[in-house]
Amino acid sequence: SKNKKDTxxxxxxxxxxxxxxxxxxxxxxxxxxxEGNKDYPVNKGMLCSKGMNLHYTxxxxxxxxxxxQMRYNKNMPLQRVSWDDALNRTAAVFKTFINxxxxxxxxxxxxxxxxTEEYYVINKLIKGFIGSNNIDxxxxxxxxxxxxxxxxALGEDCVPVCYDDIELADLFYVTGANPAxxxxxxxxxxxxxxxxxxxxxxxxxxxxxxxxxxxxxxxxQINPGTDVTLNHAIGRVLIENGDxxxxxxTNHAEGFEQYSAIVFKRTIAEAAEIxxxxxxxxxxxxxxISEAKGFITMWTMGLNQSAIGVNKNLSLINLNLITGxxxxxxxxxLSLTGQPNAMGGREVGGLSNLMPAHxxxxxxxxxxxVQKFWGGNAINPKPGLTATEMFEALHDGxxxxxxxxxxxxxxxxxxxxxxxxxxxxxxxxxxxDISNKPETLQYADVILPAAAWAEKEGTxxxxxxxxxxxxxxxxxxxxxxxxxxxICRFARKMGFNGFDYQKPADIYAEHVRLTAKTNIDISGLNxxxxxxHGSVQWPYKKKRYVKDSSRLxxxxxFYTPTQKxxxxxxxxxxxxxxxxxxxxxxxxxxxxxxQWHTMSKTAKVNKLNQHxxxxxxxxxxxxxxxxxxxxGDIAVIKSRRGEVRVxxxxxxxxxxxxxxxxMHWGKILGSDLNRANNLTNDLIxxxxxxxxxxxxxxxxxxx
Length: 703
Ligand code: SF4
Fold this sequence. Notes:
N-terminal domain of TfIIb, 4 domains, 7-stranded mixed beta sheet, 25 helices, binds iron/sulfur cluster, 4Fe-4S Mo/W bis-MGD-type domain-containing protein, flavoprotein, metal-binding, nitrate assimilation
């Protein structure tokens, strides 16, 4: 009815990278309700617990930042100021630092939850006009190892499959992921597919027995960090048994000989010993792969968040390559993006080592193209600071000002106590957020209130390259503004041209023009086309709607210079922190089903707090017995960096010698003893610069 049309708009869930379609109903009293969009191809009407409760986060404005605040020096309290005052002063401070210390003395640290248009203008501002590449986002903590893995193996940062491949696959190899909790709607599709086709096989690789294992035909409960050894061992069995695709390897891939040499360095028995699984289970995994017609590998943080994250990714993609399970229906690597728009951010180049439309920062032709297009300053060839490097640079004084947008690094960065000390001493801190809760706010010199999901319009890209348009449904409270608007106002205060957009559609139009003739060409796209079709997958070159641009590499030509995929012979050595007699346990951190990130939204929803009301540590009964710990005790967990005190949750679902802490909790009532990242360490993957959240050495004792 006309009434429904006026009061209902489409959007996309702003939590995980599954990217479910949502209908937002605008109620008469100004509040909203949400429901799953039945016409949306991703979720067909389904929503998980987080998505179903999105309206509470919008309707409850009690924690919202309502107006800009500022303090003139660190000893003064924050006071309410106008937008002009906040942005004028910040522009003056930025100019002073840039003049005195150079453009690399300032940085933006943003989020995988930003809309594509927001990323675009931040990236343009710092790279095109300020002259530094110091923009990074919390996607660095999330998908950067997968990005490097894809680029090295396939020549481009791209997920080759689409979700419709799920229903065409007969084997899923799920590793370092718990999609039953963290990507629930995608997992519902796998469950439904297996229910309808009992022959479909699922292998789960995880040191924990997660809910995802409920569906597994084979659970390989490996020792943390041994993924490469396991994948190599499976590769070896496949080669030994002749279960590889020689035609694909010969014609469409390179590097097989070196790969073969490296996987044959270890016997299967040796690998089984290292991984803590049986030899027969490794052989069974290889058997399942050999029998599969459609073989999908799925992974997320267990592989990415590692000091050898890139090697783990490559060792996994290798299994698709040696078996030729890529570029055909129901087969290929499917990295499960953590955040709703990590991929959209990368499309505009929103990381410190990237350029718009996946251009290369170290390519002078690409730099010149972008500089000419933007009409600003020459692009600096030097990669900018990554997430953890920004805090190191604040620490040693190279970085003078940091602008934090839509993320809470004091809960989410590794070694969080050090990060907090660093932020406390930073010269100038701008925090742009929707919530008055993040710990960063107490160290801010300027606080800028941002509009939240459903209060602004823009686009996002999900894990299967699907671009969707998010409608604005309600006004932002108080003086809060959309992030893109804040950045454009600031850019104008800095005196830069090229930030006079009338509306987000203008930003989007500029972004798509810049993608022309690249691998991710979406130059044919605009808001009207996306709105008309609900969503569109890239690439999208023509202005004509094409339904199936969904699966890449059907012609088996890859984006590498030789058009062949690269099988990389990666070493399997683990470079994570060593355990010793003082810190004998391995800590792994992760998510729980009903919370998202640092909880600034999900903790507002009573229903979502019921699942786990507080932080806890999961430990195996044999370990607990040895330590005199019983269920419900308070345990003290220490690492070389800090400590945590949380309730003990004894469970046979975790491997002996390993403990698990949820990553969501930060400071509560001034105490940081729930914060898992007090314990995690500064080690990063040398290439992807992604932190080693899944492995650090700890001790655990009774409080
Ligand atoms: Fe939102 Fe992800 Fe849940 Fe879908 S699966 S409703 S995108 S949190």
